[in-house]
Specification:
Layout lengths: L1 E5 L13 H11 L3 E7 L11 E6 L2 E6 L9 H21 L4 E5 L6 H11 L3 E5 L5 H5 L6 H17 L2 E4 L2 H10 L16 H4 L9 H6 L5 E6 L9 H11 L5 E6 L5 H10 L7 E4 L7 H6 L3 E4 L13 H8 L4 E3 L4 H9 L2 E3 L9 H12 L1 H15 L4 H16 L1
Parallel strand pairs: 1-2, 1-5, 2-4, 5-6, 6-7, 8-9, 8-11, 9-10, 11-12, 12-13
Antiparallel strand pairs: 3-4
Helix pairs in contact: 1-16, 2-3, 12-15
């Protein structure tokens, strides 16, 4: 069996991003399934005027399109990048032979090469929904043109209609799809993001404490944010929260690691509020393989979004990495993750709008950071919860889908 894997923004294990596709592909190869990616990368060392590069890594074949993309690009630049990948990726997909195409969004247009391949070569495809497009981008105001919105909703419908399976990464994403297209309910199967237990199950006892080495001291209580500094992440919330906290307790430190269009603004805001290097530390991104050291040397992981309910369906890598490291989770949104945190006792939930954080609630959070017994319990609960989102669970579900399609 051979799978053609479409992922526009693939990240290798030493990269600073989500490695779900790599982890799944590696497990598929170990199960005897051949994998060939179609992806793009601004980091690959292309030769002058080289459009495609082809490499082998860990038994996986990669076709890499020379295409610049990063979070600092504006909407038009991003749309142009989507179009270029759509155009060149479609022709590349038609040239390859495979039994199934697995297309993972975003963007929504990643489904078009799979759809065209099915039309001309009758190759079945699976569409994996990492974020529900166009619902999410419309909700944040990125696409206001009504005609374009209708076109995107129609494209979403067509991609779902002709797929063999729709795989959203959360139950809330699944419900969003079903609310619009109830007839597709039977082809939906949720496969959540992955808590990669093997990656985090490493001995770092003899390793340098990255947090202490970068800060110059060991904080009493530290909260790690390792992710994107994009508009939707709402990191301004963290700065405003830190400003409230430092007036009462100076021992709670926020460590923000990542990159994105809003990073320079966040750094300046932290400077303006005299928080930078006081209780807010903003560091450069690290590779996925360095994350265990980071998480093991902090007290808590975190994930934030701006207060738009359509974003609460997210299946953030940060959430699953925190669980895999056996650390409690801090979020500022509702939805399925809030339910998991409450039901499994694995973290703390802040209000979506910081103006809802009363003095009493603020004091409650500070008291929480001193409750060692509760924190130890949540550490254990987090690790146990991570087992429900293991790579083995996710890959086995996918392999079952592959076998059912082929048979």
């Amino acid at each position: 069996m051979k799978i053609i894997y479409l992922h526009q923004y693939f990240c290798p294990p030493d990269g600073a991003g989500g490695t779900r596709s790599y982890d799944l592909a590696k497990r598929f190869v170990e199960s005897g399934i051949a994998i060939e990616f179609i992806t793009s990368s601004a980091d690959y060392n292309f030769k002058p005027n080289q459009r495609w590069a082809k490499i082998e890594l860990d038994g996986i074949t990669y076709n890499i399109l020379n295409l610049k993309y990063d979070n600092s690009m504006n909407s038009m630049q991003r749309m142009w990048a989507f179009y270029k990948f759509l155009w060149f990726g479609t022709f590349k997909c038609l040239k390859l032979k495979g039994d199934i195409v697995l297309a993972t969004s975003t963007p929504l247009t990643i489904g078009i090469p799979a759809l065209v391949n099915k039309i001309f070569k009758r190759t079945p495809y699976i569409f994996e929904v990492r974020d529900v497009w166009p619902e999410a981008v419309i909700a944040i105001g990125a696409i206001n043109n009504k005609i374009l919105q209708k076109i995107l909703f129609y494209l979403e419908f067509i991609i779902y209609k002709y797929s063999e399976k729709i795989v959203p990464l959360s139950t809330d994403m699944a419900n969003s799809i079903i609310n619009r297209y109830e007839s597709f309910k039977d082809k939906i199967q949720v496969i959540e993001n992955i808590s990669e237990l093997d990656r985090f199950n490493v001995d770092i006892s003899n390793s340098t404490d990255i947090i202490k080495s970068k800060l110059g001291f060991k904080p009493r209580f530290s909260i790690l944010y390792a992710g994107s500094f994009a508009k939707v992440n709402g990191i301004k919330y963290v700065i405003d929260f830190a400003e409230k906290l430092i007036k009462i307790d100076t021992s709670i430190k926020f460590i923000l690691i990542g990159f994105g269009a809003e990073k320079s603004n966040i750094i300046q805001l932290a400077k303006d509020k005299n928080l930078l290097n006081n209780n807010v530390y903003i560091l450069e991104p690290v590779g996925k393989n360095q994350l265990p050291n980071l998480y093991y040397n902090v007290n808590m992981g975190s994930s934030f979004v701006i207060p738009i309910k359509e974003l609460w369906a997210n299946s953030a890598n940060k959430f699953f990495d925190t669980l895999a490291a056996g650390r409690p989770m801090l979020i500022n949104y509702e939805g399925w993750q809030k339910k998991v945190i409450n039901n499994s006792n694995i973290g703390y939930i802040l209000p979506p709008n910081l103006n809802e954080l009363t003095e009493k609630k603020l004091k409650n959070f500070i008291d929480y950071t001193y409750d060692k017994e509760l924190l130890n319990t949540q550490n254990t609960n987090s690790l146990n919860t991570a087992k429900s989102y293991s790579l083995e669970e996710a890959s086995n579900k996918y392999i079952k889908i592959f076998n059912n399609i082929i048979s």
